[in-house]
Design goal:
The chain has two helices and 51 strands. By secondary structure, the chain is mainly β. It has five domains: about 1-120, Immunoglobulin-like (Sandwich); about 130-230, Immunoglobulin-like, CATH 2.60.40.10; about 235-340, Immunoglobulins (Immunoglobulin-like, Sandwich); about 350-435, Immunoglobulin-like; about 565-670, no CATH class. The N and C termini lie far apart (about 135 Å).
Length: about 675
Amino acid sequence: MATSSNFSTSNQYIKYRIVVTENSYSIPNNTSSVNVKVDAWRTNTGYTTSGTGTCYCTINGTKYSASISSSQSISYNSHTVLFNRTVTIPHNADGSKTIAVSAYIDHSRFSSSSQGFNVKLTTIPRQANLVSAPDFYDTDNPTITYSNPAGDIEAMTSLQACISLNGSRDDIAYRNISKTGTSYTFNLTQAERNVLLSACPNSNTLSVTFYIKTELSGQTYYSTLTRTMTVKNANPTITGSSYEDTNSTTTAITQNNQQIIQGRSTVAFNFTSLAALKYATLTKIDITVNAVTVSENLSGSTVLDKTVSFGAINSSSNLSASIKLTDSRGNSTTQSLPITMLAWSLPAAIITCSRKNNYYDETTLKVDATYSSLDNKNTITIQYQYKKTTDSSWSAAQTAQDNVPVTINLDNRYQWNIKVVVTDRIGSTTYNLTVDRGIPIIFFDRKRRSVGVNTFPNSDETLEVEGDLLVNNHSLNGDLKLVRSSGGNTRQIKGEVGTTDAFRLAGGADNNDDGFTELATSGDGNEPIYARQYSGDFNTPVNTLELLDASGDTKIPNNLQVGGDIEANGVTLPHKYSETEQVVGYWIDGSPIYEKTIVLPNTVSIPADTWTSVIGWTDDTQVISASGLSNTNGMSFNFLGGRWYGGALGILSPYVLQLDAVTFRYIYTS
């Protein structure tokens, strides 16, 4: 029931309203039975209004009227019915309907304008509606439930159901369903299942929409539910898997491509067929052996006669390959394939090689080899070569038998390299040995009347030592005396250094009484001679005197003290000459007397009978004496005596002098 608001009239105390009641509706006729009443009342007490007139009411566009008699009096809250009519209202095609209802009163005592409101009627069911639909597997026949309130009426010309992928078409075609039923099962054909599967090649799930279509009174209505289809039992398949050794070198040994040699065979895996199911495509195959994985991308739904190259397998015992095939949906199948392995490693050997009695040329070599069996199909060869350690080329290769000694003649004066190569049918191992010289610690040579220490003597009547001569822990207590040399003979301690250089400490005599000692180097004539002071055990040099450097010059690290004269650049200097300040005595007041010689950078010419300033000094210095040296005039002379404070040193000579150096003695006043 719907009731309007209270409407006003020309009498302020009289109101009216419209009451609409939907009695029923007809699904087959798509109509409703509607009752409309108009009643009036007074809002104040103690008064009653009576008279005649007409009440007009427009319902859904149709105008109706009812006469008002004097018996229809209007009093306080009387709600006197002035109009009452039941009408049949046709609904819209979709079952919906809203009606407009208005009324006005023309009374002998009052009147009103037309006033009304809208009323929404019940929507009459015009279509079947889905109640439920399942998520389902691609192998299922899904069942839906539905309601059809209209039932089997003539106006409903069709009721059908379908499955759609995207709502734009019936991918699983419409089929008729019962107008009076409540459920329907889709018995999918294989072709229909293929339509669904082909729509999800990269996923195991697919969103689908169930539809019910109702055709009623020339109109079409739809009811939908969206659900998920899941693909199952769709893992890809592997057929006819096998392996083989494709390395001709190793199969030549085993004569069986099913025997895989550790680390050497080249393994390939073969497959008769690799297939993806239910419209998926193949993406990848992974083969894992001994924690090593080889992968290969695939395409298409089926691959026939496929070979995957794996490579070497590093295992000494039998094992299995894990084969995993993956499709575009991410589904995979894993298969295990046993593999027969033959253990192999490079041949090895225990080798002995020694001189007879550790001295003679005769040397015995013995090789005890160990190698892999390879199912009793492997063999080895042993070859050896030798050379002096100082040589670059080897002897020709010779063959030895396993665990059988061979004799080699190696000159015992030299150290030798021995190379042994042990080779099986696949690889080889090289061993390098050293045979030391066959020289005793001490050798007495009767023929030469000589003794060799760690060497054979090369000269007559000699003691020859190869290595260092250490006496009493680095000290030689006593004399090391050489036979007297005279008349041009030389005795020496000599050694070779570097590539072509040598040194010696020699003594000799030009004549019977003209002896000399020599410290010398030889080679290119520019090898320096050093005299050094070290700290520690000859670890760090502290002072180095270069007696002769590469240019023949002498370099002194510190002061040079000379007891006689020194000649430098053709100038003879006083024997006390020193370019550094030295204390040479003390003045009467105890002050130190210093001496220093200055060699002038250039010779200064002193004119005759002319006072010439030579050099100046500061006020804090008192010059006691000064002397000069003239190389040109071949003389030395004093300038002055006594004590002179700050000033200049000069000379007045009756003849021309050439001044080359000046020696001062002085004290400091502050």
